[in-house]
Batch of 4 targets.
Target 1
Amino acid sequence: MQPGKGYWEKILSEARGCLMVEGKTQKIPPQGFDLKSFFPYQTRVFYKHVIQAVSRVYEARYDMKPNEWRTLAILGSGNPSTPAEIVELSSIDKVSVSRAVTNLSKRGWILVRANRSDARSKVLTLSKAGKAVYHDLVPRMLEAEVELLSVLTDAEVSELKRLMEKLHSVADKPA
Amino acid sequence: MQPGKGYWEKILSEARGCLMVEGKTQKIPPQGFDLKSFFPYQTRVFYKHVIQAVSRVYEARYDMKPNEWRTLAILGSGNPSTPAEIVELSSIDKVSVSRAVTNLSKRGWILVRANRSDARSKVLTLSKAGKAVYHDLVPRMLEAEVELLSVLTDAEVSELKRLMEKLHSVADKPA
DNA sequence: CATAATTAGTTTCCAATGAAACTATGTCAA
DNA sequence: TTGACATAGTTTCATTGGAAACTAATTATG
């Protein structure tokens, strides 16, 4: 339960000089904070790199927005879905899903029909055209993924994924 | 130079059923694409988690925006800088830096003086108030980082950082 | 049943961001 | 010099995305 003490001891030791307890202003910082070695900063740079590498594909080829691609991807890989299911599966918020669905529908890529079991809802499926786009795009996206990851070994990719997932397991502080 | 063949062989094999070569439309996909196991998707989820964990701190405490925090962080840890240097160090674009500087200046946290050696430019430093904010915020940000990373061991943190950095080393395709 | 509380999805509004155009200054070459 | 081009920073504009309010339909409760 106490993993990696050393790490943050090191980090905090850098900050120690400028720690201030609530009211008490103390000391000048030991020139200590370095954005470049700050984990969230590194994550942001990393993220931008990854996203940019793959978003080019659907942007250039179909002028799609990220959320449209994600929505299409979910509809293509599964059975008919409701917007709510897409929210669930994509971690996009419902407002954005609504917009993506509207746009994809305008383009004729998805079909919207009523949901018999709940009139508030809708059932979405890919149209023929939508499937064609999906089939064209998926392998290209996977290629882009492969290209992106090609500097890493298999083992490294697995490890990276594992560590990213592990980070989520932080329980929200009970207090 | 050919690292981790197995990984993408696996990935591509899933797509194989629906690969289409330029003009030729082929096959139905093997129900194959799963957004949740798509690396860029995982990265986005990961990123949101990380950013959210730390941005709370400066948002709640000083109602600062991400780019304002980053700008402050750079000014605080170093010597006087020009906006261009901040762009360089923060990987924020110059438009955003300009805005962050304007806002921080309005709040009285940074001082702007002319740059003797180039009248187009400016020299920025933290004011007394700005330093106080910096000194208050830095240890809290580091704490948030520690908190965030506390589910990982030292070794895991190092490895994660290493892998994220390694991914950048992709050379932009020559052709 | 009737009505209160929820839920699905949309619309409206606003904050954040980046691209392109713009202003002012600096640099280089004839 | 003087003009052509480059550079620092700002402004304008369009796009994106999320929060909150809204509508319509459903479920729960008395």
Target 2
Amino acid sequence: MPDARGRTARPEADCPVEVALAAIAGRWTTLVMRELMHGPASYGELRDRLPTLSPKVLAERLRALEERELVVRERLVGFPVRTSYGLTARGEALRPLLVELYRTGAALRGGGASG
Amino acid sequence: MPDARGRTARPEADCPVEVALAAIAGRWTTLVMRELMHGPASYGELRDRLPTLSPKVLAERLRALEERELVVRERLVGFPVRTSYGLTARGEALRPLLVELYRTGAALRGGGASG
DNA sequence: CCGCATCCGATTGGATACTG
DNA sequence: CAGTATCCAATCGGATGCGG
């Protein structure tokens, strides 16, 4: 596979590269994914770990990830209300991409990080 | 490397993941990179291959890539004026990332949506 | 505790016309 | 041929207050 194998003349939503980009699109998205890669977390836990992320954007990100079926939301009964977010199998499928992003970024910075 | 190894609490420019995301940021960027992965190309050749990409955005992308030293511009003497754009070694370093984007996107499209 | 509604400034990408 | 200059609509992300 010499390159990204593309032949499209413009960014089309069904191009695989665009699909992957859409999955991680938006500021904070990769950080939210990283947190969920550690295991399921509640809305508040995510806020604690990403304190400067506003509730609006966090909700937007979670909704987008949920719509793409990368994340599942689970309402937990009890008091106070709690919601747990966790990765789906599809969400887990993004792990190699995040690793590759890290590896590539580290290489660009000058480090010889290999993954 | 179990995850993206991150510890940052917000998107910081020096986080490797952010570095990589910045390198491919912006609509059309991955398509421009893909074209250059085939080999050097002139401004006009890029326009021909990406006909609906406006001159302004193409120039912006090329400038950004050049600033990050992923692409080199070379002015060719002669008439008419020609400019050749080519990948640097750093630019070539993005190839595995593009491949991974393709691979991941293809998996998401083809894979089922199991929880 | 969870998350939506609203407002707002900044950035983006596209169209188009023009210049060296 | 290889860009730059301008304008503009749309989107984005952040702040904040309110509702379930």
Target 3
Amino acid sequence: MDQYNSFLRKHISEFYDLTEEEWNFVSEFFTLKKLRKHQFLIQQGQQVQEEFLIVSGLVKSYEIDENGKEVIIQFAKENYWVSDYFAFQFHQPATMNVDCVEDCTFLALSFENREIICEKIHKMANFFRKKSNRGFIGLQQRVLSLMKETAEERYTQLLDKDPDLIQRVPKKMLAAFLGVSRETLSRF
Amino acid sequence: MDQYNSFLRKHISEFYDLTEEEWNFVSEFFTLKKLRKHQFLIQQGQQVQEEFLIVSGLVKSYEIDENGKEVIIQFAKENYWVSDYFAFQFHQPATMNVDCVEDCTFLALSFENREIICEKIHKMANFFRKKSNRGFIGLQQRVLSLMKETAEERYTQLLDKDPDLIQRVPKKMLAAFLGVSRETLSRF
DNA sequence: CGCGCGATTGAGTAATTTCAAATCTAGTGG
DNA sequence: CCACTAGATTTGAAATTACTCAATCGCGCG
């Protein structure tokens, strides 16, 4: 568990350094979870009790549209947090699926425990606030790119911004993320 | 100023009730701003020092694409917060424009002051954390709707979810928000 | 060696955009 | 109060774009 704790501590220290005391308190609330490629972290219809910090591996969050086609909302890898946040926040059954594109290791934090941490440790409230701000900004960029740019532009920008991803994810999934058919993507 | 302060206090109390002391501290950091229809709250290229809580009125946030067409990221009205959050967060010049669709009243909060408030008042860190979470979830829904649904479905859902908006916003703006040409929208 | 999955290519189809023109509407000045 | 004008909306028709369906190609794995 130590190696995972040090991952978490380093992750948090991007924004705040915790004292030993704070750290001992916080780290208790996380639990380790491992999944293999193709396994579900979250499945549509389930209750979503936890959010997950990805220690290693890569997942995709997606929904299925009325024609049965995957619509990928986001890919998430090391140092990203992932959950079905709507379901998580409002205690609803998941509308999303999250499944592992690679073997994965996660640190899980329940909703209740996150609230406890944030009420107790001022720095952690600010940590999650800043994380959430970043996430918000990232999604706003995504909305803009969906609306302003063609799928081809989105593709080349993704190649540029996150070349790593292209190596780790099959093109049909990239297509589902960019919002075009795989045939169209392969004509770029 | 009292009426605006009571608006703010009520707004915050959706999540937390502040003590008199806390409230006196917090309220000092907000300043009032009024603009008329068609005036800019934020203009592309400017520094963005503040975020704004809308007390009354309605604004649109948008960018201009390479063909000179408006792409509307969001509408915001009473009780919404608005800024160019990328620029605000990272101290970059604005890429967005925010302008008033109606006469507006805002309560402005600078980045530095927000940080002060959040470092000082634990409840406010949690308040902004929760606000940001909500915003994140809202944007995630928006990404999904852009990818899963046709513009026509998005239109009828908007009519359903926010009928108020249709009254207050010309259809050409709705088109720019939904991601279709105004001609196509008028054929629905 | 052959199977299966992912990626590519081709052809026809459906949907949306663009350009153009006509119509409608709200606000202005006389 | 009415006429006028600018902006907003609608409608038509052509052009563009992306989609679907189908067939083919390529590669890794049993």
Target 4
Amino acid sequence: MDSGAVNTVDANARRARRKPESLSKIKGAARKLFVERGYDATRPQDIAREAGLGHGTFYLHYPDKRACFLAFVEEARQELDIYLRQARQPGQDLEQAITATLNAIYDYCDAHPGVLRTAMTDASVIDAGGHAGVPLMARWGEEWGEIIRDAVASGVVCDSYNVAIIGQAIAGALHQAALECARSQQCRKALADNITRFLVRALRPD
Amino acid sequence: MDSGAVNTVDANARRARRKPESLSKIKGAARKLFVERGYDATRPQDIAREAGLGHGTFYLHYPDKRACFLAFVEEARQELDIYLRQARQPGQDLEQAITATLNAIYDYCDAHPGVLRTAMTDASVIDAGGHAGVPLMARWGEEWGEIIRDAVASGVVCDSYNVAIIGQAIAGALHQAALECARSQQCRKALADNITRFLVRALRPD
Amino acid sequence: MDSGAVNTVDANARRARRKPESLSKIKGAARKLFVERGYDATRPQDIAREAGLGHGTFYLHYPDKRACFLAFVEEARQELDIYLRQARQPGQDLEQAITATLNAIYDYCDAHPGVLRTAMTDASVIDAGGHAGVPLMARWGEEWGEIIRDAVASGVVCDSYNVAIIGQAIAGALHQAALECARSQQCRKALADNITRFLVRALRPD
Amino acid sequence: MDSGAVNTVDANARRARRKPESLSKIKGAARKLFVERGYDATRPQDIAREAGLGHGTFYLHYPDKRACFLAFVEEARQELDIYLRQARQPGQDLEQAITATLNAIYDYCDAHPGVLRTAMTDASVIDAGGHAGVPLMARWGEEWGEIIRDAVASGVVCDSYNVAIIGQAIAGALHQAALECARSQQCRKALADNITRFLVRALRPD
DNA sequence: TATGAATGAGCATTCATTCAT
DNA sequence: CATGAATGAATGCTCATTCAT
């Protein structure tokens, strides 16, 4: 009787776990290959094989390749969000906030090399084909817009900007500068210093 | 006999002219289709047909599709360069220089809708697959870096920046802000005003 | 202990009953889906799900999809047989027999819309691929052959026919005329009248 | 000069011939395989290989497999039409007309074994998936309807039938009887005799 | 120089079936 | 007896590129 109950529990637990198990294998394999090879050069078949599973299993979890990639992008966005939220503390002045944000992004990039670049480079192309809503960069631009709006309300940022535009500009500046730093192997400290100073000067009141 | 000679002369003349002729037809068709449909959705066959030529003719002028696209990107870059060079006059102060540059870009975009976006969006993907040298954005970043370097030398820009980094940041800011303005149908004047003020404040000495 | 015994009895009873239970669920679901979607567009998985059972259960009752479809066809044939047997009474003259038979078929089609068409259309394809014995139409042709043979023996049908051939011809005439009536929404009475007259004239002695 | 003209003519002729050449190879191969294996078991790849051509060539001539099959069916219909038109001569009485028609069909079947069966069996399934208009059998039913209508007008067929219904019935009777004859290797003469007598009795006036 | 018929590697996706639980 | 996650062979189709003319 007891063993029966245990078996049942086990069975249920295993049953409940098995699907997520293969899902997470697929997820991990997809992430690895998308980052290594890019969207186009990664076939669903490769992902499944990398995960040690049959081709068909891929389609148990995603309706198509696109959906899998979009899920990968969304996951990356959420992971970065955690880094960002941890970095931004109440009471930071503008410079501190910018520095903390930059460091959060660079920490994430160190921890997950290539993920952000892949998510952003290919996502724009994927989205273009469809109608998938706001691209990743634009969303980050919007978030920066909100940060600036709050900072304006607190009086720590000059109030003469259209925050929507400036939010996008900041996101673009960060992105492109970071890309180039990666390309040219520049040190991250110089990057953070320069960008911080740049933004602080541009934004400070008066 | 005479008519034969004339025909031969004609034929030679035409032959000499024809290659450039068919090349420019191909170029124009490629540009049109790349902008309308994007890189992936445009087949060499489509380009040749749009140009009113046989499929094989495409490969008389370009070794492959990639090369054709890269040539399109390069052409766009050079066209924009002309606009930019005309805008930047000696004796401009920093604000004037920035405003003039922005206006040159927007003028180009008005004159050649979609070209810049296509050149930049798809180029990144094409490059990613290969190793095609410096992406378009990075090159613009470098050019901005040089502009800033000169401005620093003239004393109109504060000298505490790493110009390579800041050049990239400026290019990124411009790009992303412009993209978003296009997406949200914002007016170009607000965009130019905001970005100009932003950059002037960030860059002015002291 | 008692309750255990009772449970065991219950369980056995249920076990004995359950197989037929789940079989009839599968049968019903298969019939519904084959009629609605056709053979090719119906997956064993769909059938099991429609039956409220797991995918694997399907294969507890049928070795494969084909066998399931063939069972559906056979069931339809037997159901129609009941209608036909009830319609044919001893002492009918030829005209009465034909009319009664036609009405039985049309009653069956009204009671089970689509079943006959599905059974016959797809069965031919299934059979074609394999060697599954006599197709449905041919069996009906044989039955008509026997009816005619009996009628010849009774002297109500002219004896100069090869009954095997004429049986098939009758079955084909009925089938095709009925199909077209369904397609063109013709009334069933006109159909029955015309076919009956046609057959009676063709078959009557002298 | 002359030789030049000849060359041009040759070149044009060859150019004009080349496409049809591969098309007719594909057509022939498709016909062979559809008849031998049926629609489902025949892949475009098999057709191209059977024709001694690459896979892609198939899609130069047909947008998809379905279209190829439908073209095969249409071709068969037209071929049979020629046989039928040759068989039906003005001045035939009803019995002659029916016999001639039957013989035309059987001649066609002898000359092109399996073609009609394949065209009709699989066409119904293909059409079912789409909306491809009137199935082959129904069209023949209509044609028989017209033959009967004319015969009624000439007074050689009794005028109490709905010719649309009877036309379909005749087509069905012919088809099914012929199918069964093929299955049971019955001789064609018995078939023609029986069906002719059957139809003549059913249709003759009074 | 120009052509366009021919090519075939390559891809995303489906689905009947199995088997460990 | 029941389950449903896993499988992978198989399919229809595309498209960049070649080459005989």
